[in-house]
């Protein structure tokens, strides 16, 4: 997006932070299942993001996370770095998914078993889980509340890949159905929404933990 004129405007930034790598040796599509925590590398990713925000002198005065453990753990180093208490917002939770709990290993085509066909009938909705529109609506409502509560400052919302990505698409006015392989939302990445007053003036995408993300196994199908 184009740069914006901040004269006489209240500028607020809402950072949408994807959680770090999860400990998941069984390669389960865990979705909203409890008990999935960050791996050691995931904790390091979270620390890297916190350091990046502090090194950049970010004016972070608010921190809210999805209720899921991996998001809460990702928020922890930021809370410590900025002296904040992490709030919890159900609207930031992972997308609902009927494949939740399925172990697919590195072979996503296992989901093409005939018993799953009814759930795959409409990928544009998608028919296997929470509709994209509903995800974007709840996320945008959370962003709006965070923007108002922390007007003139910066706030971090810790969420999950799909909800963050469809929220970005919604703000950009793009269609919400998409090829998952083309999502620009790596682990521990920041999708930063810059507002001038109540108008979205720019979207910035950064990967503070890029080095750690790049060290992940290439070609393995992501279930995060």
UniProtKB/TrEMBL annotation:
SUPFAM superfamilies: Phosphoglycerate mutase-like. This is Broad specificity phosphatase PhoE. It comes from the Bacteria. One of its GO terms (cellular component) is cytoplasm. The lineage of its organism: Bacteria, Bacillati, Actinomycetota, Actinomycetes, Micrococcales. InterPro entries: His_Pase_superF_clade-1, His_PPase_superfam, PGM_Phosphatase. It holds the Pfam family His_Phos_1. GO terms for molecular function: phosphatase activity. It comes from Xylanimonas ulmi.
């Amino acid at each position: 997006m184009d740069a914006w004129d901040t004269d006489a405007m209240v500028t607020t930034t809402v950072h949408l932070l994807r959680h770090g790598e999860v400990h998941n040796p069984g390669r389960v599509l865990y979705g909203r299942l409890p008990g999935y925590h960050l791996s050691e590398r995931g904790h390091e990713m979270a620390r890297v993001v916190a350091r990046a925000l502090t090194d950049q002198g970010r004016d972070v005065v608010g921190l809210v996370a999805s209720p899921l453990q991996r998001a809460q753990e990702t928020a922890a180093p930021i809370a410590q770095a900025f002296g904040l208490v992490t709030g919890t917002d159900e609207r930031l939770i992972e997308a609902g998914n009927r494949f939740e709990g399925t172990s697919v290993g590195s072979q996503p085509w296992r989901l093409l078993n005939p018993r799953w066909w009814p759930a795959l009938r409409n990928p544009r909705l998608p028919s296997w889980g929470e509709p994209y529109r509903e995800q974007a609506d709840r996320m945008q409502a959370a962003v709006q509340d965070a923007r108002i509560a922390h007007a003139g400052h910066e706030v971090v919302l810790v969420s999950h890949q799909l909800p963050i990505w469809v929220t970005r698409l919604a703000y950009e006015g793009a269609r919400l159905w998409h090829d998952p392989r083309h999502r620009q939302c790596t682990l521990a990445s920041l999708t930063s929404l810059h507002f001038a007053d109540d108008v979205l003036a720019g979207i910035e995408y950064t990967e503070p933990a890029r080095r750690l993300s790049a060290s992940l196994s290439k070609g393995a199908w992501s279930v995060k």
